[in-house]
Write a structure and sequence with these properties.
It is found in: Golgi apparatus membrane. This is Golgi transport 1A. Pfam families: Got1. May be involved in fusion of ER-derived transport vesicles with the Golgi complex. By secondary structure, the protein is mainly alpha-helical. The protein has two domains: about 1-60; about 60-99, no CATH class. It has helices at about 5-25, 30-50, 50-60, 65-80, 85-95. Helix 1 (about 5-25) runs antiparallel to helix 2 (about 30-50). The longest helix has 22 residues, at about 5-25. The protein is flat, with a radius of gyration of 14 Å.
């Protein structure tokens, strides 16, 4: 049986809140504040679940660099209050990362 640390449990909760805020921001006509908050929570939770080293090694692999740049670029665009364009960039980057 795999043991789950307290940090990983907190990370699951934070990732869930991040997904909730992203969904709520999309439902409320792409509210940039909710989307930005959801993005930050999602990335923070992911880092707590799998660890900083594994997160960095996942995002910055050579063959995943295109997806990473689109995903993180989309996060930056959402933070700059262009939510629709940022979400399109994030979605493309997400599918490029996990294909």
């Amino acid at each position: 049986m795999i043991s789950i640390t307290e940090w990983q449990k907190i990370g699951v909760g934070i990732t869930g809140f991040g997904a909730f805020f992203i969904l709520l921001g999309a439902l409320l006509y792409f509210d940039s504040v909710l989307l930005a908050f959801g993005n930050l929570l999602f990335l923070t939770g992911l880092t707590l679940i799998i660890g900083l080293r594994k997160t960095l090694s996942f995002f910055f692999q050579w063959h995943k660099l295109k997806g990473t740049s689109f995903f993180l670029g989309g996060v930056a665009v959402v933070l700059l209050r262009w939510p629709l364009l940022g979400m399109f960039l994030e979605t493309y980057g997400f599918f490029s990362l996990f294909r």
